């Protein structure tokens, strides 16, 4: 099954205008709290999809469902045509190796240097690399985010923006086809936020990644999103580019973006 998944994904990813990610009527509740109430969305190859919504609206839950960290109650989640809700843990890990995840706080291991954080991730995903190949990949990933000089530093020595960059380097080191960004500019000053936004755009252009960006930052949404969706009451309430949503006839949508 794992080989079949790998083959299917590779074949599908070569298709022009391929839909890489698709949610079909996805539901998720926690006890009596219904968070996702029939989410439908799709993301095409090379596209940045921004998902907006109030706190607790289910944005982060949706992307955790996408990589199987949280199990859905109902519905399908397709990654390059494979329904991940039907996979076992081993098969899910095959999908996860193609997905980079930038967590809200960077989620670095505090007891490891920057080099060790990246090495650990790469070794976990590819056990066949030589030490020289691992080191080369670590340096390359840090260069891609402009932080090669931080390779021997500890996370505690880094600023918030630098930790986000290292987190992004760690996501990039596995050469993902998909990147999931969870509040990439949260807690950053405006200048550093702009740098992260520019980096997201550079990565999309250079690596042709397909991405979902969860954010409360309207500047981030406006600048990075090829498509923008707004979650309300557990469903996609509005969809379009940022400009069209800003001029929507729906007063709630307009108010959300101001």
Automatic annotation (TrEMBL):
The keyword Manganese does not apply. It holds the Pfam family ABC_tran. GO terms for molecular function: ATP binding; ATP hydrolysis activity. PROSITE patterns: ABC_TRANSPORTER_1, ABC_TRANSPORTER_2. InterPro entries: AAA+_ATPase, ABC_transporter-like_ATP-bd, ABC_transporter-like_CS, P-loop_NTPase. It comes from the Bacteria. PANTHER family: INTERMEMBRANE PHOSPHOLIPID TRANSPORT SYSTEM ATP-BINDING PROTEIN MLAF (PTHR43023:SF6), PROTEIN TRIGALACTOSYLDIACYLGLYCEROL 3, CHLOROPLASTIC (PTHR43023). This is Phospholipid/cholesterol/gamma-HCH transport system ATP-binding protein. It comes from Flavobacterium swingsii.
């Amino acid at each position: 099954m794992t080989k079949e998944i790998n083959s299917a994904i590779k074949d599908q990813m070569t298709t022009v205008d391929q839909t890489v990610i698709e949610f079909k009527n996805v539901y998720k509740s926690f006890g009596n709290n219904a968070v996702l109430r029939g989410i439908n969305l799709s993301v095409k190859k090379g596209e940045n999809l921004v998902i907006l919504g109030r706190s607790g609206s289910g944005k982060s839950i949706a992307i955790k469902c996408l990589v199987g960290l949280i199990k859905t109650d109902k519905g399908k989640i397709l990654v390059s045509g494979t329904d991940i809700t039907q996979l076992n843990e081993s098969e899910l890990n095959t999908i996860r190796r193609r997905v980079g995840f930038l967590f809200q706080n960077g989620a670095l291991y505090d007891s490891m240097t920057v080099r060790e954080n990246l090495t650990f991730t790469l070794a976990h995903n590819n056990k066949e690399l030589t030490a020289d190949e691992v080191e080369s990949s670590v340096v390359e990933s840090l260069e891609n985010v402009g932080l090669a000089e931080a390779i021997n530093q500890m996370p505690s020595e880094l600023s918030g923006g630098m930790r986000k960059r290292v987190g992004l380097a760690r996501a990039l080191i596995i050469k993902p086809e998909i990147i999931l960004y969870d509040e990439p500019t949260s807690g950053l000053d405006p200048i550093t936020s702009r740098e992260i936004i520019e980096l997201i755009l550079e990565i999309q252009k250079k690596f042709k990644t397909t991405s979902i960006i969860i954010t409360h930052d309207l500047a981030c949404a406006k600048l990075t999103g090829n498509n923008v969706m707004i979650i309300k009451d557990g469903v996609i309430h509005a969809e379009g580019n940022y400009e069209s949503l800003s001029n929507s006839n729906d007063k709630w949508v307009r108010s959300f973006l101001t």
